[in-house]
Specification:
Layout: E1 4-7, H1 15-27, E2 30-37, H2 39-43, H3 57-68, E3 71-78, H4 79-82, H5 87-98, E4 102-106, H6 119-128, E5 132-136, E6 140-141, E7 144-145, H7 148-156, H8 160-167, E8 171-178, H9 183-186, E9 192-195, E10 205-213, E11 216-225, E12 237-242, E13 253-263, H10 271-296
Parallel strand pairs: 1-2, 1-4, 2-3, 4-5
Antiparallel strand pairs: 6-7, 8-9, 8-13, 9-12, 10-11, 10-13, 11-12
Helix pairs in contact: 7-8
Length: 299
């Protein structure tokens, strides 16, 4: 079978992106997900954290390969190289550099110089160059088309359940355990401070999650916020209480798979009230994680 190239941003690796890979593998033994580097800088887009940490992309793509039964690669080209190309010149470049015989795009594809090429124009160009064009319809979940922008909006309001539906997996926040102020340990509820985070934070609040560290995987009650009960003007922090874990995990990688937002961040009248609520959050986390595990595991 001939090589396929899917065109897109692939920033979220969501179900719409997975559909492009799946259709590519229906036409070829391997598909390359082609994105363009330097695009944000050239177009003047505001910098923002990705929806998938760079170090986590291989895990996601490996899962897709196992599920779809083919080879999925990531490839990139400098945006500066292709920005001024016509549609035909761009496709000739793909033929020369990637031996492309099959092009996979979504129905809303626009490309080429001044975004002049849509699906209709692309079909004619592909035909003239002896290439096959595969057009993939949008993927909808709960009546709404899955897109990176809609997932960012959901994450911004803390709706990690909606994000999970659009991704086809839990949203994974990736970072490293850093030393905090030790306040959780003082309250008898030690936490791992997830610093150096590599992707977008969710809205402030408390989340039920699972945490993965080198020692294993644990249910985790995760607080995202500025700890208003403790003091004002604190930087945003992500702290996870790992249920059932005892030990020192400083400077170790930490992955938090967010399952459900339990409540928004709030200010309490005293540390005693805060501690009582945290214990309630922990009990609720145990229940949510257990229910989630039963839902995703066969049995």
């Amino acid at each position: 079978m001939t090589p396929a190239v899917a065109l897109g941003k692939f920033d979220a690796l969501h179900l719409g992106h997975r559909a492009l890979a799946e259709h590519g593998l229906c036409a070829a033994a391997a598909v390359s997900l082609l994105s363009f580097t330097g695009m944000a800088e050239i177009l003047g887009w505001e910098p923002r954290q990705p929806l998938v940490a760079g170090a986590d992309r291989e895990r996601v793509l490996t899962t897709w390969q196992e599920e779809l039964g083919g080879t999925i690669r990531e490839r990139s080209l400098p945006f500066a190289l292709i920005r001024e190309l016509t549609g035909e010149s761009f496709l000739r470049l793909l033929q020369a550099r990637l031996a492309t015989a099959v092009v996979v795009v979504g129905e809303d594809f626009r490309g080429g110089r001044d975004r002049a090429v849509g699906v209709a124009e692309l079909a004619g160009i592909c035909s003239g160059l002896g290439m096959r064009l595969v057009v993939v319809p949008p993927v909808a979940v709960a009546g709404r088309t899955v897109s990176s922008s809609s997932l960012r909006e959901a994450l911004g309001r803390g709706d990690v359940a909606a994000v999970r539906q659009g991704l086809g997996r839990s949203y994974r926040l990736l970072g490293r355990v850093m030393r905090g102020d030790g306040r959780g340990r003082q309250l008898g509820i030690p936490t791992a401070n997830c610093g150096a985070r590599e992707n977008q934070d969710p809205a402030p609040g408390v989340y039920a999650a699972t945490a993965t560290i080198p020692a294993g995987r644990f249910p985790a009650a995760v607080n995202v916020g500025r700890q208003p009960t403790v003091g004002d003007s604190r930087p945003l922090a992500v702290e996870a209480h790992l249920l059932g874990y005892q030990g020192d995990c400083y400077d170790q990688p930490l992955a938090l798979d967010l399952i459900e937002r339990l409540r928004p961040e709030q200010r309490f009248g005293s540390l005693a009230e805060l501690t009582a609520q945290i214990h309630q959050d922990i009990r609720q986390t145990q229940q949510v994680v257990a229910e989630h595990s039963r839902a995703v595991l066969p049995g």
